[in-house]
Structure formats: structure tokens, C-alpha cells
Amino acid sequence: MNKLPKFQIEKLATGIEDLGLNRRAYHLLKRAGIHHVSEIITCGEKGILAIKNMGGITASHIFSTTSKYLSISEEDLFSKEISQMTLSNEINYKIQRKSSGQSIENLGVSLPTTNTSTINLTPLLAEILRNERTLQIIELRSIKLLTLEEIAVEIGVTRERVRQIIDNILEKVRVNLNWFKKFCDYFEEQAIELTEELNNKNLTVNILTKRFSDQQSLNPKINASEKEIEALIVIVRLLVIHEKYWSQEIIKQKWKNFAFLACVANPQVKKHEMVSQSIKIEREKSKKISYKELVLSILSNEKKPMHWSEIASHAYRMKRRESFNSTALYNALMSHEDLFIRVDTGTYALVEWGINQVDTYPNIIAAIMKSHNKPLSAESVYHKVNIIRPIKQATLTMLLELHPRFYKSQQNTYGLRVWLPAREKQTLRTPEWLVEDRDSYKRLELAKQRGYDVSNIIKADLDDI
User: Fold this and answer.
1) Which of 62, 70, 358, 428 has the most CB atoms lying inside 10 A of its own CB?
2) In whole angstroms, how far apart are CA 446 and each of 55, 320, 439, 452?
3) 338 vs 452: CA distance, rounded Å
4) CA pair distance 223, 216, nearest whole angstrom
5) Following DSSP, what letter does each residue of 361-372 receive, concatenated?
């Protein structure tokens, strides 16, 4: 194509009222928020055709009239070279100067520079945010998350007027979407670096704005003040809140990190899918959880048998309970046989894994006694148990002395309590190995007080004899 002559660059800043468009085309463009020749180009052919009530004949009239005004062919109207010219600071500044009532000074920003390597945010915001009231409305909607009714009361207009203003802002973003993308693409790159660094719990729009501003100052591809960056964040939040079809895909995919940071900042925009998910995760973490649920969660995540002390260590580090008691966790392992199974000394797995359960020491001792059908000395029991499964002498002694399943006879041997005749039936003729030692009987009473169901324990052994 023939390069656009320098003297014609001025024409890109021309208002559409000077193009000579017919009345229908002029009003359709105005209602869509397109006020200058450059905006027709940045909107693109598809953008113009997407304008409400825009027909093919009217669009063709706009394209031909604009190309004739610029002295270029219709094929070149939306070329890359012409589009780049419309985004230059020189053209944007001229649009700003020509637009009445669009003074960007209200945003507290500096004038655009003539450095063509930087893109200036000022003209875009001047086009979208016409005045202070417009900015105030979207801040109330996007930052304070007020309803349309609440905003109407706050600024003294009707709810319908608030809706119209917000719709107009969103339409201006849509019309200037190609231009808008330039800035959001840039801040998406910055957001990737900031996502892991920032603490979502304490993040606010002000903190996020400051961090973006600090990041930008190191590599200023974008010329923007803190106030302008905040305005851009507010607009992105507005797009998420109002879920316009034309913005959803780029928000979820192209501006994934930027939109997430903008919406996760307090107060959080819960309509954003990733924000909603992060809130759910945090809520689950802070939820009170039982010891049974803790153990179930740990074993499910680790996918392997674990010693109970290791499970307790994991549970403590998770900090899911206000107070933590390792004994209570161990009791949960012992008492939920439908969920947990012991597969080795102090080691547990999930029943659903199908791992064979290791026999308990009380069962091993009882089986040995049943096979001999008589009480045995502690030393004899110790050697026989060790053949099946290693056990410490102190552990064995504790089981024989304290477990209500066993008794100590007057012969200093140990047997199954199920063998003992009732105390009232014990006489001088009863063999000593069937007479319980006095201390052993006292320990039985203590076991009952601790909650052992002695009668069921005896009944279980009786069924096996």
C-alpha cells in the first residue's frame, strides 16, 4: 500500500461529523461511542459490523467514506500500518485536545509524551470515562460492590440512569476493545510476576495499583499514573461483574492473571471463577474438622500406609483445629474400624485399599492360650508371641496385666478370663490356675471403670471355644 502521508495523519484525529456520513451511519457510530476517524479503525471491520442495528450497506458506506477521506483504498483501511498510527501518542493527544468535556486532568494524570515507543493510557480513559461522575459510578459498582439502587441513592439519580451510564461505559470499552487490549496485555505480563508474590488475603485495589505502578516504572512500555492504573483495574472488575459475552473469553484466557488479581483484591469480586474457587478453598481450610476427617484426608492424600505418629505430625502442621491432641487422633484410628486398618506396628491404612490387617497382640496371645488350653507363664507367652510377631517384654507384661481379656492366677500364670468359673463358685477344691489373683481382679474393676465392655470381650472368646 501507499504509506499515509505525514500531513494526512492529522485526519485520523478528525471527528466523524466532518466525514460526510449519512444520518443513519453517523448516529449509529455516535451511539456506539465512536467519535473520531481513528476509532473507526481501532474498532475494526468486525467491530463496526457488530454495532447494534448496523447493516451491511451502512457499514460499507462508513468504510468507503472513511477511506476516501484518508485517500487510501478500502482494503488498506484496517491494515496494520494504519492501526499502529491510530494508537500513537501523537494521534491520541490530538483526539484528547479536540474532544470537548474530556479533560483527563480530572484523573490526575500527566500529559502524553511524544515517545513513540510508549503507549499512553490517558486518551483511552478520556474516551471511556467522560467525567468524574462516570468514574465515581464505576468505583461504587466495582470497588464498593454497591447495587444499582444503592449507587442511585449515593449520587442522587435514578437506578435506570445508573444502568444507562454503566451500559454506555461497557459499550465504549467494546468499541475500543482493540485499543483496550494493548494495555491489558501489558498488565497481564506484569500480573504473572506478581501473582505468587502478593498475599490475596490482605490485597486491596490500592495495594495492587501501587505494585503495578512500581513494576511499570522499571520497564515503562505504558505511560500511566497510579490513578490511571487504578481506573483500568476498576474497568476490568466492571467487565467481570457484568459478564459481557464479548469480554468473557479474553478475561478467562488472555487476561487470566490480571483479571484474577483485579478481582481477588478486597472487596473480592466473587463472580470471577478463580476468585470464587480460592474463597471456597480458604473456607475449607478454616473449617473445623474432626480427628477422623483429618486422618482420612492425610491418608487419602499420601496414598500409602503411615505410622500414627507421622499422621499426627501431618495433622498438627495442617493447623485445622484450634487445639490438637495426638491421643485423640490415635483413638480415632482405633475406633473407626470401618475406615482404618492396622497393617503393622502403629501403622495404619485405609480399609478401601484392601490391605490385609495384621493381627493384634491380644488376639495373638489369646490364640496361643487357646491352642494350649491352659494358662501359661509370662515368659512362655513372650517366646511364643515373638515367633509370630516381635513384641517388647514390657508391652507384653502390660497387656497381660491390664487387658480385661486375661487374668493372672494364683500360680502366677496367665489365662483367658472366659476359663474362670464365677467367683461365687470358686472353692478350695478349685485348681489354683483357675483362681484369679486378688490384684488381677482389682485391675478388672478398673478396666470396667475405664469403659471396657468386659462381658462382650468374654462372650467373644466363649464363641471361639
Assistant:
1) 62
2) 93, 35, 11, 9
3) 20
4) 9
5) HHHHHHHHHHHH
Tens digit of each residue's pLDDT (9 = 90 or more) over 97-144: 444 343 333 333 333 333 445 678 888 888 888 788 888 998 999 999
Euclidean distance between CA atoms 149 and 162, whole angstroms: 8
What residues are paired with 409 via a beta bridge?
Answer: 436
Give the three cell numbers for residue 145: 460492590
**C-alpha cell recorded at residue 110:** 500527566
Residue 444, pLDDT score: 85
Query: CA quadruple 100, 102, 108, 112: dihedral positive or negative?
Result: negative
Confidence of residue 203 (pLDDT cuts 50, 70, 90): confident
Dihedral sign (CA 424, 425, 427, 430):
negative
Query: Does residue 223 sit in helix, strand or coil?
Result: strand
Residue keyed to cell 488475603? 201
Q: How far apart are CA 311 and CA 316, in angstroms?
A: 9
Q: Which residue(s) pair with 120 in the sheet? A: 223
All cell numbers assigned to 421: 468359673
Give pLDDT, residue 296: 92
AA letter at 14: T
| Mean pLDDT estimate for the chain | 81
C-beta of residue 348 within 8 angstroms of C-beta of residue 340: yes
pLDDT at 335 over 60: yes
458-464 long-range contacts (CB < 8 A, ≥24 apart) are: 458/405, 458/417, 458/418, 461/366, 461/405, 461/416, 461/417, 461/418, 462/418, 464/370
The predicted model scores a pTM of: 0.43
CA atoms of 103 and 82, how far apart (whole Å): 26
Which whole-number Å values give the CA distances from 165 to 96, 125, 369, in the listed order? 21, 15, 89
CB-based contact 223:121 (threshold 8 Å): yes
Helix (H) or strand (E) holding 414: strand 414-416
Strands 414-416 and 340-344 come out as unpaired
The DSSP line for 86-105 is HTSHHHHHHHHHHSTT--GG
How many CB atoms lie under 10 A from the CB of residue 344? 12
- Is the previous residue joined to 112 through a cis bond, with omega within 30 degrees of 0? no
Judging by DSSP bridges, how do beta strands 222-223 and 119-120 pair with one another?
parallel
DSSP category for residue 72: S
Cis status, amide bond into 267, omega within 30 of 0 = yes
Residue 54: all three cell numbers together: 448496523
Give percent of the chain with pLDDT exceeding 70: 86
Q: Indicate the residue type of 145.
A: L
pLDDT at residue 105, as a whole number: 35
Per DSSP, what are the bridge partners of residue 350? 340
